[in-house]
Design a protein that fits this description.
The structure is a homodimer. In chain A, 38% of the residues lie in helices and 16% in strands. Chain A is α/β, with parallel strands linked by helices. Chain A folds into two domains: 118 residues, Aspartate Aminotransferase, domain 1 (Alpha-Beta Complex), CATH 3.90.1150.10; 218 residues, Type I PLP-dependent aspartate aminotransferase-like (Major domain) (Aspartate Aminotransferase, domain 2, 3-Layer(aba) Sandwich). In chain A, the strands form four sheets. Chain A has a seven-stranded mixed sheet with strand order 2-10-9-8-7-3-4, sandwiched between helices. Chain A has a two-stranded parallel sheet with strand order 1-12. The radius of gyration of chain A is 20 Å and the shape is globular. The interface between A and B is large, with 81 and 81 residues.
């Protein structure tokens, strides 16, 4: 008899992007912020006491929840803090969908979603974006699908495109299950679905400290939803999902909005510049509202080969050997110097 | 329609022990180590760089796994690192038991186990310890139960008692599912079930950095098992369960075995002294191999009232309003000063 469930034995785990130990690599493959976190976050870590390490942390990351409630203008019982946004996804999936319940998501999207569905032995319902040139649109009739849970990354990964909030509002109104809007990249976008929470009790937002706040190494994410739903999710989370060091650093980083917003402005400016320059070289790129772009290589070029050639030059971008993505590279926006190095390498390789 | 599954709606979440913000409380209720972590762990945290925070951490906590493999004399592919031992429990439950599969555990034991089973909509099979005076024994025929997973805390919480390794070996040989031995407290015990892993592919050990290494605030645990099982569990874990700060600090603490072992020796000496002194006052206490004791209050006394009276004096111990535990207090071993204060308070309250 196998020791593990048949659905676990049959599935493949999620493959994270490469995390090279070598810090000289120009790393534009996993959507980290090119700028370090707020000095206040570093200082919070320096100030951690042995006594804080010795004792269990706040079970509910109270300090962070109070700070997040203030930043977003909601009540603290509308916030759940988790060990990275991925843990929130896992909690929501387990809370809402049992075996053979349907979990739907938009594709191409975050490739963790099908893994989470397989783990739960749920019925997977991938729904394709409607592509009109570089426009990534929600398909007609999406609200009418029958599913316990619908997952949408917005701005989307890997396309960087944004579904307008009004469309998400219509979707929430018509959809019979829980709508999770994964706003991991929203700090680089002009709008958030936050206003929907007042009108729709079947919406939960996912937020991450990994991108907008330069804290990918810390593992800190959170969810925002009506208190009743948050109370149910709290039953499913671990007793102490966030550690004392992470709570302190994430709280400090979130409270330093001026610092974070400066990094977002810089990333957005660089994103626009890089998009224009790559388009000028023949790449096709949807308008991104995120900290990365999805670039279709010029006609006659091979995206997988270009990925490898860049890697050989110590520049890592992301290539997905998946339907609809095989002619594309997902490129994280780096510092001006990193983006220049990338452009120079691409110019040389395509010449 | 409810947004959450019926089993989630019907269940109650786990209730962690109180975590008072007030550091003047003598906190003997959640089994933390009374001594701070190794200075090497503190130093590792002080040395964390902004760049480590900005980038994603090692997905598999490689640095820690190499250190743990060396300490335990196993190969690194026999180690999985998790965000606290609780996350390992959640991973194992999800990997091994689907809806209506049976999960068994010994009772009274860790009260998180029934919560994890309810979360998974699994069939719960609590099995009672066979109590002979202060002896907590595995019941006859335990190996013959039909379950996907059997969870045993050893040394047990809340009793502190130890099932000999030979009995666990017999159990593993006869049992048809996965046997998880939760060794969260093993650092204070004379033996571990580690040798079983060579002979039994259906055994996994849980270890924690919270107790033996004074790092409850950091959330770091790990599992040890045959590589085939670890590979399956890796499919179910998050992409980056352990953060960069925690990996560094946990690795440093684990490598400083001399420091950790000194704290264990002190705790053990204090445990023996406190046990004798409380027994002399009429408490009945099984021999503990952990960093806490389970004390049955003297005849005619009320354990719940004593808990409250101690709390009124700023001393927190743990009281469980559960079958078999209502006449008992679980008391974490503190520093000599804390234990003296506890004894003085009890002497005064019982006089």
């Amino acid at each position: 008899m196998s020791l593990v469930r048949s659905n676990i034995g049959a599935m493949h785990g999620y493959t994270p992007g490469e995390q090279p130990g070598d810090v000289s690599v120009i790393k534009l493959n996993t959507n980290e912020n090119p700028y370090p976190p707020s000095p206040a976050a570093i200082e919070a870590i320096r100030q951690v006491t042995p006594e804080q390490l010795r004792r269990y942390p706040q079970p509910d990351a109270r300090a962070f929840r109070l700070a997040a409630a203030k930043v977003h203008g909601v009540s603290p019982d509308m916030i759940i803090a988790t060990n990275g946004g991925d843990e929130l996804l896992s909690i929501v999936v387990r809370a809402c969908a049992g075996e053979n319940d349907t979990i739907a998501w938009l594709e191409p999207g975050y490739s963790l979603y099908p893994v989470l569905a397989a783990m739960q032995a749920a019925r997977p319902m991938p729904v394709q974006y409607e592509l009109q040139g570089n426009d990534w649109k929600l398909p007609n009739g999406l609200a009418g699908i029958s599913a316990k849970l619908l997952l949408i990354v917005n701005p989307n990964a890997p396309s960087g495109t944004l579904v307008p909030v009004e469309q998400l509002s219509e979707l929430a109104a018509g959809f019979g299950g829980l709508l999770l809007v994964d706003e991991a990249y929203v700090d680089f976008a002009p709008q958030s679905a936050l206003p929907l929470l007042q009108r729709h009790s079947n919406v939960i937002l996912l937020r991450s400290m990994s991108k907008g706040y330069g804290l990918a190494g810390l593992r800190f994410g959170y969810g925002i939803a009506q208190p009743g739903l948050i109370a149910e999710l709290n039953k499913v989370r671990d007793s102490y999902p966030c550690d004392a060091v992470a709570i302190g650093a994430a709280t400090a980083a979130l409270q330093d909005q001026p610092y974070a917003q400066r990094t977002w402005q810089r990333v957005i400016a660089e994103r626009e510049a890089l998009t224009q320059k790559l388009r000028a070289k023949g790449f096709s790129i949807p308008s991104s509202h995120s900290n990365f772009i999805l670039a279709t290589v010029p006609a006659g070029r091979d995206a997988a080969a270009l990925y490898q050639q860049l890697k050989d030059r110590n520049i890592l971008v992301r290539y997905f050997a998946l339907p609809g993505l095989r002619d594309k590279l997902r490129i994280t926006i780096g510092t001006p110097e990193q983006n220049s190095a990338l452009l120079a390498a691409i110019t040389s390789l395509l010449s």
